[in-house]
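Dear colleague,

Thank you for sharing your sequence with our group. We've completed the structure prediction you requested, and as agreed, I am returning the results in plain text so they can be pasted directly into your records. Please verify that the sequence below matches your submission; if there's any discrepancy, let me know and we will rerun it promptly.
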Amino acid sequence: MSSLYAYETIIQLLKKAADEAPHAAAIQDAERQLTYAELWAAITHSAAGLQALAGVTGGRVALIAENSLDCAVAFHAVHAAGAQIVPINPAYTPRELREILTDADPALVLFDAGRAEQTRPLLEEMELAGLPIGAEARPWADWLERGGPTALASWPRPDDLASLQYTGGTTGRPKGVNITHRQLVINLLQREAALPTYAEDIVLCVMPLFHVFATAMCLYLAANCRGLLLIQRRYHPEQTLKMIAQNRVTCLPAGPTLIAGLMGHADFSTTDLSSLRAVYSGSAALPVTVLERWEAAVGCPIFEGYGQSEAGPVLSYHYAAEQRIPGTVGRALPETEIEIVDVETGQTILPTGESGEIRARGPQIMSGYRNRPEETGQALRDGWLYTGDIGVLDENRVLTIKDRKKDMVISSGYNIYPREVEEVLLQHEAVAEAAVIGVPDAYRGEVLRAFLVARSGRVLDSTALEAFCRQQLASYKVPARFQLLEALPRTQVGKIDKPALKKLVSDS
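Please find the predicted structure tokens below.
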């Protein structure tokens, strides 16, 4: 067993927190606050309620919800019930939801009570059981309001599946990443070894909880240190600044877009941010200029890390006790190995300072993709996770990311695979060919640009194309610009030449 282990499941961690710090504030949103004793009672009662439903224990439970106290309790309750949580972006369209729900095949779907009108018809169509969550939802609210914890019929085991996190696929289909309780907990404690947290910490969760970064660096992080998780339903820079100042927030997990957005708001220079002791950056590359501006203005360090859903999710971070190098993503976490290998075969270990594919191994690495044996075999080879990302290690084993997975775009911290957007565009009756790339954007990091060829005799209209995309795609996947070409550039073997399209953008 790993020397890092203090717990084998998140549920053990929460039980110990409730036993040893029952009166400490645990979770708070705009409406309610729970102590650790109250949180534990809410978890056990809701987990018992879930266990009484057919197929939940040992099955999968999807969660379609915005940030809230109920959403956070639901995560823990599903774990405690012995089910695998499937967090899904509530902004997804019915097409996107249908694709993930079909693959996940959940025994139950938990969803925001305020989304019932949009969600129930899809669940009825797919013949899936649904249960609303929220302060007015029954029986959910009754479970959370019962006093004192209750006994559970069974408890999750360390090697039970805890999370099914969907991420983009190069084929355009989302892939579900299987993570066990053991893998989830060890990654939490690996991160803790690099970036210690404290009982007095107040962690602001403004990143969406359906995103693996927020669950790892907000939900589980706060529970582990027995600090307060302060939940903001949606990101708005003015409100976020107020919450930091009014609640004396100490830890801010945030993507680069959020950090830049706070600095760009008119209230930034006049807001008291002196309570912050650490910002944890992840989900996308952080520009060095943003880091330097933030630290000069606030006096609070930004610790940048690297990972992906398949990695549990964190592989490396800047260690709090060590000197940080701007533009890098730190060293491998304890019990984690990172190597740079040749891109062609993945077998030759490259020397210090040479760029190649990043591969990693450690106890936090995923068990595999759900229903994707071939893609699992491509990603997991001889005990190594092949990330598909390009990086370089220096003489101190500090990692720098040079490039990302082929074709993937990161916009406002969200991974977008252009193939999915292209397939949607090709469904439009006036589109003959489509190619989508990412282009630099000062605020979002990248945005999508679509290059299109019209069908003979048809006219392409950008407004109509945007409306069409919004019916099929979450808003962050909708191209920022649609550009009409007479023909798409192609390589000698007839493939669409995306580097040529990127050059077209840079030259314009």
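Summary note from our side: The chain has 15 helices and 26 strands.

Kind regards,
the structure core
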